[in-house]
Amino acid sequence: RKEVEQDPGPFNVPEGATVAFNCTYSNSASQSFFWYRQDCRKEPKLLMSVYSSGNEDGRFTAQLNRASQYISLLIRDSKLSDSATYLCVVNQNSGYSTLTFGKGTMLLVSP
Amino acid sequence: IAGITQAPTSQILAAGRRMTLRCTQDMRHNAMYWYRQDLGLGLRLIHYSNTAGTTGKGEVPDGYSVSRANTDDFPLTLASAVPSQTSVYFCATGRVAGYNEQFFGPGTRLTVL
Known about the structure:
By secondary structure, chain A is mainly β. Chain A has strands spanning 4-6, 11-14, 19-25, 33-38, 45-50, 54-57, 60-65, 70-75, 84-91, 99-101, 105-110.
């Protein structure tokens, strides 16, 4: 099983739609979880950190289910500017460990 | 300097040549990382440094070396470039190794012919 798995998409949605991305991780000891956004030919940028049972930031809601080793990102009222690739990122929590990045889910929001 | 800078922005390099990619931060973060990103493979960690004076190998370290002489700089060297090292290279920093979010530089687009 891959360490961090995401549906690659693309997800094609109209403006105003609600869209949800899912991510599963393999290491049950993981403690830190993040969602990053990456625009075409640009660097990844932190969108949200998910440290407990989930959190909300405006139109974005991230949720964590430790029992199922599952993270989700919900985007409400999609904007054209939300078009990007969304990366699920997990800390593997083994000493001086590093973050593991999913391959990303592409979102295309159309007028 | 604002945040993380990388140089060069892009480079075309002949196979067999030596190349150093530069990364400098002014965020005073302890940890620094080098990733490569290839289509279909996502971000893969090359080398990392938890603090100045220490380095470690990531997922794909072969053909690359790093040094961390001070907090701010973390250069990545390709001793003898090969075409499979054609990629986009991102430098990143983190406040504490492994547990906190990472912040990325703008990247270097490298083509090895």
